[in-house]
From TrEMBL:
PANTHER family noted in UniProt: ABC TRANSPORTER I FAMILY MEMBER 17
Keyword annotations from UniProtKB, A to Z: ATP-binding, Cell membrane, Membrane, Nucleotide-binding, Phosphate transport, Translocase, Transport
SUPFAM superfamilies assigned: P-loop containing nucleoside triphosphate hydrolases
Location of this chain's protein in the cell: Cell inner membrane
PROSITE patterns in the record: ABC_TRANSPORTER_1 (PS00211), ABC_TRANSPORTER_2 (PS50893)
Domain called ABC transporter: residue spans: 13-253
Recorded GO CC terms: plasma membrane
Protein name according to UniProt: Phosphate transport ATP-binding protein PstB
Organism: Methanosarcina barkeri 3
UniProt GO MF annotations: ATP binding; ATP hydrolysis activity; phosphate transmembrane transporter activity
Lineage: Archaea, Methanobacteriati, Methanobacteriota, Stenosarchaea group, Methanomicrobia
A UniProt-annotated Pfam family: ABC_tran
Topology class, membrane: Peripheral membrane protein
An example Gene Ontology biological process: phosphate ion transmembrane transport
Length: 258
């Protein structure tokens, strides 16, 4: 059976035979993966193996890169997201993304969270409630509720990252992509974000790229191991870490390379 397809029933995201080139260079090679709803899927592998490239295919962030060509199929809830009628703005609303470096806008805490809902036409009278709910869900409300008008850039790095998560949640996504969300954070902020992702999977499907093997083992239900653009092994996280089927997976998770 194709790697990435077994073990998962009723997938919300289906990736089939995905190939991607940056110019002449092929960065993803025939990757297939089925990702279930309300789960956390971790993507691991050495630098340059294509993890970020893969995750960016799930909300068409690679569209923004010149010279990038994609073949294959990505279906989210039965919709082919590369189909001709797809509204990419709507797609990115329902498939949100949190990046490695916290990137709040240079505006107030409140306006950061209200930004997306405003663009998508939320009613002014509903905004306070939307902002509060998003900040609560991102576990930062108690720290900022008395200074919503302060600049977002006055927050600590860990708080800024939770604010960025609140900003993503405010537009009500179904899926959240995290691209190494804790690599710029200290250990305590990292644990807070990990706890938060575990809480969020009740309501969202999460895909996370991480270099931190302990993090993948701690928080994810499924893990995919990439090497040189190929998905080498995909399965339940416990199986991947305790009983990998492929030698290269074992070598990577035991630190023999990467
Ligand atoms: N915009 C781009 N243009 C050209 N090549 C790119 C671009 N982005 C990534 N690549 C190349 O594609 C390959 C995969 O990169 P990608 O960033 O997806 O890997 P990664 O596994 O996420 O790495 P890291 O863990 O270091 O972030 C690498 O060889 C990289 O140099």
């Amino acid at each position: 059976m194709t790697e990435g397809i077994q073990n998962v029933s009723k997938p919300q995201i289906k990736v089939e035979n995905l190939n991607l080139w940056y110019g002449e260079k092929q960065a993803l090679k025939n990757v297939s993966m089925h990702i279930p709803r309300n789960s956390i899927t971790a993507l691991i592998g050495p630098s340059g193996c294509g993890k970020s490239t893969f995750i960016r295919c799930l909300n068409r962030m690679n569209d923004l890169i010149n010279n990038c060509r994609i073949e294959g199929k990505v279906t989210i809830e039965s919709n082919n997201i590369y189909g001709p009628d797809v509204d990419v703005v709507d797609l990115r609303k329902s498939v949100g993304m949190v990046f490695q470096k916290p990137n709040p806008f240079p505006m107030s805490i409140y306006d950061n969270v209200a930004y997306g809902p405003r663009i998508h036409g939320a009613n002014r009278k509903d905004l306070d409630g939307i902002v509060e709910r998003a900040l609560r869900s991102a576990a930062i409300w108690d720290e900022v509720s008395d200074r919503l008008k302060s600049p977002a850039l006055s927050l600590s790095g860990g708080q800024q990252q939770r604010l960025c998560i609140a900003r993503t949640l405010a537009v009500k996504p179904k899926i959240i992509l995290f691209d190494e969300p804790t690599s710029a954070l200290d250990p305590i902020s990292t644990l807070r974000i990990e706890d938060l992702t575990t809480d969020l999977k009740k309501d969202y499907t999460i895909v996370i790229v991480t270099h931190n093997m302990q993090q993948a083992a701690r928080i994810s239900d499924y893990t995919g191991f990439f090497l040189m653009g190929e998905l080498i092994e995909f399965g339940q996280t416990k199986q991947i870490f305790q009983n990998p089927r492929k030698k290269s997976t074992e070598d990577y998770i035991t630190g023999r390379f990467g």
